[in-house]
Specification:
Blueprint (H helix, E strand, L loop, with lengths): L1 H19 L29 H4 L1 H32 L5 E5 L4 E7 L3 E7 L4 E6 L3 E7 L6
Antiparallel strand pairs: 1-2, 1-5, 2-3, 3-4
Length: about 140
């Protein structure tokens, strides 16, 4: 846009100079105080930066949307799962990430003993992180 304006301005100056001169007169050039001729020597147009175009703000907005839609809920689920594993106790009915359902018999620091069959008294040892969900807490009446 600036280049178009400069071209129009320069062509306008050429026409006015040609009208005021007679064929025998010599053409003199005027100079500005900084030593450049008018219409020439102007600074080149500045390239727009990322901040000027608004591109950086679009990228920032996209990052915020991704954070609030994907990252934050995932972190919240991880905290809830960690809290659920911390509150695990004897008598809880659980389901493992592999789909095995049973009742917690013993809770150790890194391991959980789960009773999976009432008739055969089958017990299995699981790593605490293998517990997917706590289904319910068995009541004393049911035992």
């Amino acid at each position: 846009m600036n280049d178009l304006f400069l071209l129009a301005q320069a062509s306008g100056e050429d026409e006015t100079q040609g009208e005021s001169q007679t064929p025998g007169e010599s053409q003199t050039t005027s100079t500005k105080q900084d030593g450049t001729e008018p219409g020439k020597g102007t600074a080149p147009a500045r390239k727009p930066s990322l901040f000027d175009s608004g591109f950086i703000w679009v990228i920032l907005a996209m990052f915020l949307v991704i954070y609030f839609v994907m990252m934050r809920p995932q972190r919240k689920r991880q905290q809830e799962h960690k809290q659920m594993l911390g509150n695990l106790k004897r008598g809880n009915r659980i389901r493992t990430i592999g789909g095995i359902v049973g009742t917690v018999v013993d809770v150790q620091e890194d391991e959980v003993v789960v009773k999976v069959d009432e008739s055969n008294n089958t017990k299995m040892h699981f790593v605490r992180s293998a517990i997917g969900t706590v289904l319910a807490e068995e009541t004393a009446e049911k035992k």
